[in-house]
Amino acid sequence: MNEKVLIVGAGIIGCSLADEFTRRGASVTIIDAAEVGAATSAATFAWINSNNKKPLEYSNLNLLGLQAHERAASREGARWFHQTGNIQISQSEDELAALEQKVAEHVSQGYEAKLLTPSEIRQLEPSLVAPHLTGGALFPKEGWIDTATMCTSLLSRALEAGATFVPFESVTAINGTTVTTTTLDGDHHKYDADVVVMAAGNGTRKILAAVGTDFPTLEPSGMGTENGGSQAGVGIISTTGPVASGIRHIVRATGIAMRPARNGGITFADHPTGGKWDLDDPRLWNVPSELLERARSLYPALRNVATENVSIGIRVLPEDGLTISDWVYPDHSLYAVATHSGVTLSAHLAEAVAEEVLNGNRHPSLQPFGLSRFATV
Ligand SMILES: Cc1cc2nc3c(=O)[nH]c(=O)nc-3n(C[C@H](O)[C@H](O)[C@H](O)COP(=O)(O)OP(=O)(O)OC[C@H]3O[C@@H](n4cnc5c(N)ncnc54)[C@H](O)[C@@H]3O)c2cc1C
To answer: 342 with 39: CB under 8 angstroms?
Structure first.
């Protein structure tokens, strides 16, 4: 098999696809308007989980994502995967009752979860000194991904296996399987392939609109859309400097999610998957300091540490908030992947999409995530 595959977008999805396609013998070119992993995949909480995901098909897809990361870690090291486990704490009797119910639901679906007593939490997270701690839950299989390392490692491996990477060229038109790009200098280049795979995140909608195809992802909010945006998916992620007695797990409490950061500090999100902000809302810029205060109330060791890095992430959101992974046109010239939870899903989607594009077999896990469920296409 030496099919010529052109992948648009070198985020976590595009890099995972490039690695999997080259591994299966395809001849791959990957084009990005910027650098590797520089868009949403650089501004993500990167929590790998199938925790509270609905509906069931999406929960199952995320579980396959988690398992694919685990397989990659045992097969080839995958040093970007940190399977720390996730501890959700409760600080009132009501929160504890809700957690008990949540654990029971997850266990009944075969998802690993167990309740923790306050003293078990203190053993697992010695630096956590949460007031009014009533208990918690451990989701041991969950973890986080160092997305920069994952993107660059997978892309490097694809390049070593013969792939070509074209950075700083923006795809501006697609005609059949010929893609036209515009360089930073305004020059135009053309690339031919047997099949084009769109993994351009929030760029896919714009590229396809230019060829008259309405692609059902939400416009990011505050991004200059005519109606002021849909309040879709702006999230803010902040990271402290290194902390000596840091955090060992993903730790979640009301209003905050925290995890170890690659610099030895702690990364925070107000809500890792559901926070919604308008980019024009000035209160957005208060979030990092509010989160640091909230974190200090749980980890007193953070008293002398400052926020070192803040990033704004724009979620890639299909209209129903789930995943799109499907052929765009019936002639199988153009395939598109666009998804929230893309960090969790990347390893599984790469395998399933490669199977579909190179061997023509619709992967059963992707059946519910086709384009036919949207009226617009
Ligand atoms: C605040 C926040 C928190 C999140 N938390 C989690 C989490 O905890 N767990 C989880 O699993 N997921 C999480 N996500 C979602 C996850 O980060 C995304 O689903 C994932 O990063 C999407 O990856 P992608 O490769 O599809 O898109 P991107 O990373 O955006 O990559 C798309 C690439 O396409 C390129 N591109 C765009 N337009 C063009 C063009 N015209 N020509 C060429 N190239 C182009 C861009 O430059 C970019 O490099 C979070 C997202 C946000 C914003």
So the answer is: no
The pick from 29, 45, 174 for probing ligand 1's pocket by mutation, whose C-beta has the most ligand atoms within 8 angstroms, reads 45
Residues 257, 87 contacting (CB under 8 angstroms): no
**111 CB-near residues (< 8 Å, 6+ apart):** 50, 51, 63, 139
CA 97–ligand 1 middle distance (angstroms): 35
* Ligand 1 geometric centre to CA of 54 (Å): 21
| 91 CA distance to ligand 1 middle (Å) | 33
Q: What is the pLDDT of residue 227?
A: 39
The total domain count for the chain is 2
Instruction: Evaluate: CB of 221 within 6 angstroms of ligand 1.
Output: no
CATH code at 19?
3.50.50.60
Same domain, 101 and 232: yes
Summarize pLDDT for 296-348 with one digit per residue, the tens: 999 998 999 999 999 999 999 999 999 999 999 999 999 999 999 999 999 99
Distances (CA, A) of 192 to 45, 136, 199, 307, 332: 36, 54, 17, 46, 15
